[in-house]
Structures are given as C-alpha cells and as structure tokens.
Amino acid sequence: MNTPFHKLRSLAATAAMVAGFGLITAATAAAASAGEPPMLSVGSAFVDAGGGPGSFSSVRASEAMFGQRTVQHEFVRLRRAYGARNLNRFVNIYDFAVNDAWQRAGQDNVGFPPPASLAGKTLALALVKAGTSGHDTFSFGRMLGTALTPRVAHQVTRDITARFGAAAEARFSKMADAEFVDFARTLGNRNLRSAARGTSS
Questions:
Q1: What's the distance, CA 118 to chain centroid?
Q2: Predicted confidence (pLDDT) at residue 121 exceeds the cutoff of 80
Q3: Which of the residue ranges 28-37, 86-95, 148-157 has the most confident prediction, judged by mean pLDDT?
Q4: pTM exceeds 0.85, yes or no
C-alpha cells in the first residue's frame, strides 16, 4: 500500500504484537469477554513506529521505542538462547504478523484513528500496559488483541501457523513475550513476567 498512514481510514494493523502468538490467549479472550475496548490509537502508533502498514519493520519499531543499543543487546541474548536461525525467523515472523494484521483488520472493517501522539518510551509503556494482565504477566498476543482487536490477533495466529508451522508459531510466542519483558526491564519494570515462559528470567 502506498497510501500515507494518516490518510487511511481502515488499518489492518500485528502483531504482534501479538500471545503470544498463541495470540488468542486466555488473557486476550478474557479481555474481550470483559468488554475492554481496544486501544486502537496505540495500535496505530505502533504500526507507524515500524514504518507504516505494508512495510512494518519490527526492528525499526523496537529501536524507535527502546533505542538501537538496547535492541542490539537483546538480539545478542536471543541469539545465544535460540540460535541465529531462530532469531532470523523470529524477526521475519514478527514483520509478517504485523503486516498481516494490517490486512486482516482492513478485511474486518476495523476503523482506526490516526496514530496516537505516542513515541519512544511513552509508546513502549502503553504497549507494555496493553499486554499486561493484573498479575504482572505480559503476553504479546494480549498486547495485539488490546491494541488492535482480539479477532485480528486470533486470525494472525492462524496465519502464522499456516505459513510457518505450529512449532515456529509457538517459538515466536515465547521469544516475543521474552523480548518485551526484557525491554520492559530497561524502563524500570522489574516485576513483569512472560506469559509464555511463566518467568521473567
């Protein structure tokens, strides 16, 4: 899509992300059943930070929120834990997820407002809040379901599984949760835990 982000009326935004990707987790489903409204302006700002719909880059979005050095350090940690091949696959799936969510939201006629006036750490904190349950447990899928819609998050999970396989989807979920928890620590949140791993370590 070449239409400028702020001129689009319907955004199909992630991905995340973002249950992790078992994206429609119990937490995301609970938020939907409780009638919690999506934070659509935050979702718009997230996509915008990554380069806009259709060209979203998870690396670009992360660097915009947390800084290049922090992202590089996290990639070193993830590479050591999961290997270079899985790290590359993680980035590919992350980018695919958000761009796919953009399309899915458009198909669902989700009307997004212009991006919220959020950037950098302020946007990061909003996304962490969107993905955190009342028990300080973060889920990338819950984040996507809150910042976009639970239906879009669920559709994206299915699309990831169809394209990359169930094992890759599960690994992505685990890595996405872990990455955001690690990033949240740099913002001073030391109590957050990963939903996929069950711990913050």
A1: 16
A2: yes
A3: 86-95
A4: no
Report whether 41 contacts 49 (CB < 8 A): no
Q: Mapped to the 3 state alphabet, what secondary structure does the chain carry?
A: CCCCHHHCCECCCCCCCCCCCCCCCHHHHHHHHCCCCCCHHHHHHHHHHCCCCCCCCHHHHHHHHHCHHHHHHHHHHHHHHHCHHHHHHHHHHHHHHHHHHHHHHHHCCCECCCCCCCCHHHHHHHHHHHCECCCCEECHHHHHHHHCCHHHHHHHHHHHHHHHCHHHHHHHHHHHHHHHHHHHHHCCCCCCEECCCCCCC
Both tokens of 19, joined, read 């249950």
Model confidence pLDDT, tens digit, residues 39-74: 888 989 999 999 998 899 999 999 999 999 999 999
DSSP H or E segment with residue 43: helix 40-49
